[in-house]
Every structure is written in C-alpha cells, then in structure tokens.
C-alpha cells in the first residue's frame, strides 16, 4: 500500500526551477508536473541518504516516489520534502549470517530466485511505472529498475559510488 508523508518543501536550486525540456512532451498532460521514482536498495542507509539528497535538490514541484524497503523512520527524519514511499520487490543484496558476515550460499540462493523471476519482475515494474505515471526512474542501484524504465519507455539512471561485482565475485 502507498504511504504518503508530507513535509515542508525544500527550496530548489534556481537552475532547476522548471522541468527539463526532455520532460515537456511526457508531462504536458499533467501541467508539467514531473513524477520521479527513486529505486533505493535497502542494504544499509547509504543508498537511502544519497537518494534523499538527490531528491531534495529537485524542484519542489516534482512528485517524488521512493520504492524501497529502507525504514520509513529514516525518510521521516532526514527528508524535509513531500514524498511517497512504496515497498520494493527488487532488492538484490547480500544475505548476512551475522551483522558483519555475508552468507554466500544464502546470497546466491536469493540472487538466483530474483534472476529466475526477472521477466515477471520487469513486467510488474513496467505496469507499476505506467499506472503511477512515472516520468523518470533513478536507481541506487537496483538494476531491474533501469531495465523496467527502458521497457516502459522512460529515462532511467543508475546512481552509486561503487559496484556490487566484488560482493558477488566469490559466488
């Protein structure tokens, strides 16, 4: 279910005061309101805080939707703008056997489950993107979200400060 939290809007940077020209054709039917979906991996808080910083820099007129399993309290505490938060079925990240040890077998098992269902996941996400009238997908860094954006015909961008290949390499 959708959970909306309303906060006082941030002051956008002056250079972002209007939607970029490449959005005009997509948003002309809804008064140039841009709806951006942030797909945020829930492994740790770094992905969420980076995505919140990006969202805060966008114009206050943009509607922001976070698809994430990161805790709601983090967004309520750190993000001083309106947003909607929706749970995400797309996370693929390490399974831990303790707070600091990765469980390689569990991680591989979970990753294979996602990979085996990739067509289903992409199809469902494309449907959601269209039904939610999303204009732009920004992913930190859920790769399925970028694929779904491409299939849905909207721009999709990945944001991260590292890659996951070294985590999955031993598998």
The rounded Rg comes to: 17 Å
Distance between the termini: 35 Å
Beta strand count = 6
What's the helix count?
A: 7
Query: Largest sheet at a glance?
Result: 6 strands, mixed
Low-confidence residue ranges: 1-29
What topology, given as strand order, has the largest sheet?
Answer: 1-4-3-2-5-6
**Structural class computed from helices and strand pairing:** alpha/beta
Strand content: 15-25%
Estimate the mean pLDDT confidence. Answer: 82
User: What is the approximate shape?
Assistant: globular
Return the string of H and E elements.
Answer: EHEHEHEHHEHEH
What does it look like?
Helix content is 37%, strand content 16%. The protein has 171 residues and is an alpha/beta fold. The chain has a six-stranded mixed beta sheet, with helices on both faces. Strand 5, helix 6 and strand 6 form a beta-alpha-beta unit. Helix 5 (118-131) packs across helix 6.
């Amino acid at each position: 279910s959708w959970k909306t939290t309303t906060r006082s809007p941030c002051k956008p940077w002056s250079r972002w005061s209007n939607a970029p020209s490449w959005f005009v054709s997509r948003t002309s039917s809804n008064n140039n309101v841009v709806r951006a979906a942030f797909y945020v991996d829930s492994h740790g808080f770094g992905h969420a805080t980076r995505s919140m910083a990006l969202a805060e820099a966008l114009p206050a007129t943009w509607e922001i939707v976070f698809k994430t399993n990161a805790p709601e309290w983090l967004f309520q505490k750190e993000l001083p703008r309106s947003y909607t938060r929706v749970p995400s079925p797309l996370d693929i990240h390490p399974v831990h056997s303790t707070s600091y040890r990765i469980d390689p077998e569990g991680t591989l098992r979970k990753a294979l489950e996602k990979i085996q269902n990739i067509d289903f996941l992409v199809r469902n996400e494309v449907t959601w993107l269209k039904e939610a009238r999303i204009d732009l997908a920004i992913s930190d860094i859920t790769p399925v979200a970028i694929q779904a954006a491409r299939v849905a015909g909207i721009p999709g961008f990945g944001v991260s400060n590292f890659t996951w290949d070294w985590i999955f390499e031993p598998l």
